């Protein structure tokens, strides 16, 4: 009788441990499942932007066409001078570049807004967050009606860039590079054809020059020549930033004759609704023998020009590959985008 009672006691205790262990395993499985579901719902964190630790304050000219998505943002450094042209469409993305470029608690000598479109000005709002402690000495934009923010105390009008009535304003950076800021077409059809062009000249003018003209289209491109910019300050350059994100309305064979670039660099988003880069634009570049890099496929594109005479320049993308196609590229049906146009 005693042995039978002891046996049943052992069985009951074992059963109790078994039930408790099973409940514990079920509880752990449920918590693990809930954690996995939570992880699947959580958005993946955006990878940090590469830290640009080599942006020293020497005589080298450094130009970075930032991988900002479907928009434009260019950072220029020479000596202690810092210039930003456009800020892209996204404040968060542009803010990550401000961090990686160590621009917080610093002074930006000049910010140039090429024209009044969201994909060029929206990111610039991040510059003026008080928590960043960034001081902007001069901010240039045109006076066209748009929701862009202007700051009266540092404001200059791109239609009068030096506030002296002249169409060309030349800024010399502390490392010897120069910026020619060119007034846009006065009565251009829409914001794109009111883009302020910039010609950048390296410390050694024979080694590097670059032309950046926002989203200028055929109307303004023709006007650049008609108004004499091909003579003063001259339009021939080593690198051309593709107008209007590689749109066919931002290039003509004549434009490439005037600029005669060795390289084209395009700021474009991988997934965009415009078909950029347009097939016709790429055909014009190919026909002129000009290779291109593009931010959606190559990432941020860095150009370095030596401050030494005859030092030349280098152009280095984050990811290798030239003349690449993108997932949104297509033929444009807009008028004027034909191979035979001049």
Judged by helices, strands and strand pairing, the structural class is: alpha/beta
- Give start-end ranges of low-pLDDT stretches: 1-48
Task: Give the strand line-up of the largest sheet.
Answer: 6-5-4-3-2-1-14-15
Look up the CATH topology of the largest domain: Metallo-beta-lactamase, Chain A
Under the CATH scheme, which architecture of the largest domain would be assigned?
A: 4-Layer Sandwich
What do the pLDDT scores average to? 84
- CATH H level, superfamily name of the largest domain: Ribonuclease Z/Hydroxyacylglutathione hydrolase-like
Distance between the termini: 111 Å
> How does the overall form come out from the CA principal axes?
globular
**Roughly how many Å is the radius of gyration?**
28 Å
Record field, number of beta strands: 15
User: What oligomeric arrangement do these chains adopt?
Assistant: single chain
**Helical run tally:** 8
Helix content range: 25-40%
Largest sheet: 8 strands, mixed
Indicate the CATH class of the largest domain: Alpha Beta
Secondary-structure element series: HEEEHEHEEEEEEHHEHEHEHEE
What fraction of the residues are assigned to beta strands by DSSP? 15-25%
Q: What can you see in these coordinates?
A:
The chain has 8 helices and 15 strands. The chain has 342 residues and is an alpha/beta fold. The chain folds into 2 domains: 1-30; 61-317, 4-Layer Sandwich (Metallo-beta-lactamase, Chain A), CATH 3.60.15. An 8-stranded mixed beta sheet has the order 6-5-4-3-2-1-14-15. The chain has a 7-stranded mixed beta sheet with strand order 7-8-9-10-11-12-13. The radius of gyration is 28 Å and the shape is globular.
């Amino acid at each position: 009788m005693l042995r039978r009672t002891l046996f049943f006691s052992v069985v009951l205790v074992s059963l109790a441990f078994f039930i408790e262990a099973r409940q514990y395993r079920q509880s752990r499985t449920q918590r693990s499942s809930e954690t996995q579901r939570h992880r699947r719902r959580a958005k993946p964190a955006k990878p940090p932007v590469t830290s640009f630790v080599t942006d020293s304050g020497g005589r080298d000219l450094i130009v970075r066409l930032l991988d900002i998505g479907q928009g434009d943002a260019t950072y220029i450094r020479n000596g202690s001078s810092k210039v930003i042209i456009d800020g892209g469409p996204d404040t968060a993305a542009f803010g990550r570049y401000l961090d990686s470029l160590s621009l917080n608690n610093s002074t930006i000598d000049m910010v140039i807004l090429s024209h009044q479109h969201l994909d060029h000005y929206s990111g610039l709002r991040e510059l003026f967050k008080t928590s960043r402690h960034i001081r902007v000495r001069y901010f240039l934009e045109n006076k066209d009606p748009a929701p862009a923010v202007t700051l009266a105390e540092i404001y200059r009008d791109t239609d009068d860039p030096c506030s002296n009535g002249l169409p060309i304003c030349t800024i010399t950076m502390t490392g010897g590079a120069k910026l020619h800021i060119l007034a846009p077409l006065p009565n251009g059809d829409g914001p794109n054809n009111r883009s302020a062009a910039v010609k950048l000249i390296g410390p050694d003018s024979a080694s590097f020059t670059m032309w950046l003209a926002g989203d200028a289209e055929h109307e303004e491109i023709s006007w650049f020549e008609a108004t004499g910019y091909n003579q003063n300050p001259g339009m021939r350059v080593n690198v051309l930033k593709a107008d209007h994100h590689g749109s066919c309305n931002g290039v003509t064979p004549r434009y490439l004759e005037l600029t005669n670039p060795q390289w084209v660099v395009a700021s474009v988003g991988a997934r965009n609704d415009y078909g950029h880069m347009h097939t016709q634009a790429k055909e014009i570049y190919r026909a002129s023998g000009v290779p291109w890099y593009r931010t959606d496929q190559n990432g941020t594109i860095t150009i370095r020009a030596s401050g030494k005479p005859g030092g030349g320049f280098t152009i280095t993308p984050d990811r290798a590959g030239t003349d690449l196609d993108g997932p949104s590229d297509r033929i444009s049906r807009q008028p004027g985008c034909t191979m035979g146009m001049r």
